[in-house]
Amino acid sequence: MADRGLHHLTLAQASASIREGTLQSTELTRHLLDRIDALDSRTNAYLAVCKEQALADAEHADSEIAKGVFKGPLHGIPVAIKDIIDIEGSTTTCHSAVCSDQAAAVTDSTAVRRLRAAGAVILGKTATWEFAVGGTSFDLPWPPARNPWDLERDPAGSSSGSASAIAAGMGLGALGTDTGGSIRGPAAWTGIAGFKPTYGLVSRAGVTPLSFSQDHVGPMCWSAEDCALVMQSLAGYDKADPSSARHSKIDFISDLNNSVAGMRIGIVRHFYESDAPADANVVEALESAVRTFEEGGCKVSDVSLAPLQHYSDISNLIERAESFAIHQSTLTERPELYGEIARARIGSGAFISAADYINAQRRRRLLINHARTALKSYDAVLMPTRGNTAPPLGKHDVVTNRQVYTRPFNLLGFPALSVCSGFSTEGLPLSLQIAGKPFSDAVVLKLGHFFEKMSGHRTRRPVL
Questions:
Q1: CA atoms of 177 and 128, how far apart (whole Å)
Q2: What string of H, E and C letters represents the secondary structure of the chain?
Q3: CA 339, CA 336: separation in Å to the nearest integer?
Q4: pLDDT single digits (tens) 335-355
Q5: Are 75 and 18 within 8 A, CB to CB?
Q6: pLDDT for 2 beyond 70
Q7: What is the pLDDT of residue 404?
Q8: Is the pTM of this model over 0.85?
Q9: Tens digits of per-residue pLDDT, 32-44?
């Protein structure tokens, strides 16, 4: 591995090398920090880099491993954290002037604490849409993240910096958050894997909320396999999070490489054919993915869910109402500190009545029951993650760019994964979304891993 192309290792590959003793965490961490120094002025993926602490933690990991103490696949692995998630000693800015001068967090969020317990090395805090809702904005204290496949293209959001960092080889894993597609959308446009777990499976304690009933924390990595390795440490009940699920421990790793033959997959064609038509190259890539699963022995058939617009309208209404409840005080007292997009999106929640919100939650329950029934005979369902490739920077629109494909699974709380399904003629990533029933997270990741192995799309990297 001389140069040693370390930034192109997957998390799984790096972990194996660290365990075998052919790679040290210190070497890997220093290499990635040097790459951040060299490239991040162009990608704007990071808001803050914890260089000294990262190197100290990498040295500690090497010392432990040398003594025969190997904590698991994350031991010594450098990862990044979206800057709405608390890291002890670091200010959580939420990419906003509202929080830029607040005190540093006194404790790690539960998610970060679990990563540290697994031996991960924290590289720093990544860019985000303002408060995870403010769009690709140019009126904030820091510039927006850019897409490594084409620096004039949008990486989507809100976990924009985490996606950009992974795609550019400036981290082997990252944490993002997802309220309407904020992990999966950036994963789609930057060609990485992004996983939104079942609601409540990963703690949100120490994470700045946007929509209490739809927020999720999850991993963003180069591959579905890497996401599974991160989930092995992230998932689990946390009494500090009122929405945390009391569920038996899920093993994300042991079945990952086993056969998918006999698994039942539904294609939600009406989402991308009639509800919100996808571009031809996206559909072509999806049909190719369907053939891949069929060749692997999966039983594939069409399945219908509720119309896409129903999910989108209800999810948006609930998100706006809950986000305004969170921001009402500061938005009323200091509106000038918010960027234009976040101010408009959050502020719209002021016009939603209590009756509208309650009726939306009632309708949500009906949609959950309907989806559970529709998916009863399936292990997973497929559709695109995004209906198009990344548009020019700042031209992202949540409607015209088909964010609606991801919203259903925030409203439902079901697990959903985005993986790269190919590339357009312009060389931009295309995307496939795999979703499943509640707590079938390991099944969803297994199917994503199978597709990546068979498709060969994980060998192509952006050139910076």
A1: 10
A2: CCCCCHHHCCHHHHHHHHHHCCCCHHHHHHHHHHHHHHHHHHHCCEEEECHHHHHHHHHHHHHHHHCCCCCCCCCCCEEEEECCECCCCCCCCCCCCCCCCCCCCCCCCHHHHHHHHCCCEEEEEECCCHHHCCCCCCCCCCCCCCECCECCECCCCCCHHHHHHHHCCCCCEEEEEECCCCCHHHHHHHCCEEEECCCCCCCCCCECCCCCCCCEEEEEECCHHHHHHHHHHHCCCCCCCCCCCCCCCCCCCCCCCCCCCCCEEEECHHHHHHHCCCCHHHHHHHHHHHHHHHHCCCEEEECCCCCHHHHHHHHHHHHHHHHHHHHHHHHHHCHHHCCHHHHHHHHHHHHCCHHHHHHHHHHHHHHHHHHHHHCCCCCEEEECCCCCCCCECCCCCCCCCCHHHCHHHHHHCCCEEEEEEEECCCCCEEEEEEECCCCCHHHHHHHHHHHHHHHCHHHCCCCC
A3: 8
A4: 999 999 999 999 999 999 999
A5: yes
A6: no
A7: 79
A8: yes
A9: 999 999 999 999 9
Residues 6+ apart with CB under 8 A from 355: none
The pLDDT > 70 percentage for the chain reads 97
Alpha carbon distance 257, 224 (integer Å): 11
What amino acid positions are annotated as catalytic residues?
Answer: 82, 158, 182
The pLDDT-based confidence of 395 (bands split at 50, 70, 90) is confident
* Radius of gyration, alpha carbons of the chain: 20
Distance from C-alpha of 436 to C-alpha of 383, rounded to nearest angstrom:
12
Closest CA to 322 of 245, 214, 411, 408: 214
Q: In what order do the strands lie in the sheet with 193-196?
A: 46-49, 121-126, 78-82, 173-178, 216-221, 193-196, 416-423, 429-435, 380-383, 264-267, 299-302
- Asked if residues 453 and 463 have their Cβ atoms less than 8 Å apart, the reply is no
Pairing of strands 173-178, 78-82: parallel
Can you tell me which residue has the tokens 């496939």? 432
Give the C-alpha separation, 171 to 185, whole Å. Answer: 19
Taking residues 373-397, what's their average pLDDT?
93
Cβ(389)–Cβ(425) below 8 Å: no
